[in-house]
Amino acid sequence: MNEKDEDGETALHIAARNSYKEIAEILVSHGANVNEKTKDGKTALHYAARDNCEKIAEVLISHGANIDEKNKYGETALCIAKLLSHTKTEKVLISHGAK
């Protein structure tokens, strides 16, 4: 479930970056680690923010994603959403207490 590829991505990372909400839901309901990091320190929530997938962000947060986790560049999901002007995802993150 939490196997990683050469970049440190898990199936959940791949589902998040491809906007596969249903697959993300199945993975987390079967124990996928929502806080697993890639080699660059990115979580699935970072990917959801980058790709403006507010529905996946909701799934990840509801399953315990660390909303203020930083990648190796010091960026949180909220930083990424703001930088890319992804207002839908930004609103979701803020509504759940992202700083």
TrEMBL record:
<dbReference type="InterPro" id="IPR002110">
    <property type="entry name" value="Ankyrin_rpt"/>
</dbReference>
<keyword id="KW-0677">Repeat</keyword>
<dbReference type="InterPro" id="IPR036770">
    <property type="entry name" value="Ankyrin_rpt-contain_sf"/>
</dbReference>
<dbReference type="InterPro" id="IPR050745">
    <property type="entry name" value="Multifunctional_regulatory"/>
</dbReference>
<dbReference type="Pfam" id="PF12796">
    <property type="entry name" value="Ank_2"/>
</dbReference>
<keyword id="KW-0040">ANK repeat</keyword>
<protein>
    <submittedName>
        <fullName>Uncharacterized protein</fullName>
    </submittedName>
</protein>
<feature type="repeat" description="ANK">
    <location>
        <begin position="40"/>
        <end position="72"/>
    </location>
</feature>
<feature type="repeat" description="ANK">
    <location>
        <begin position="7"/>
        <end position="39"/>
    </location>
</feature>
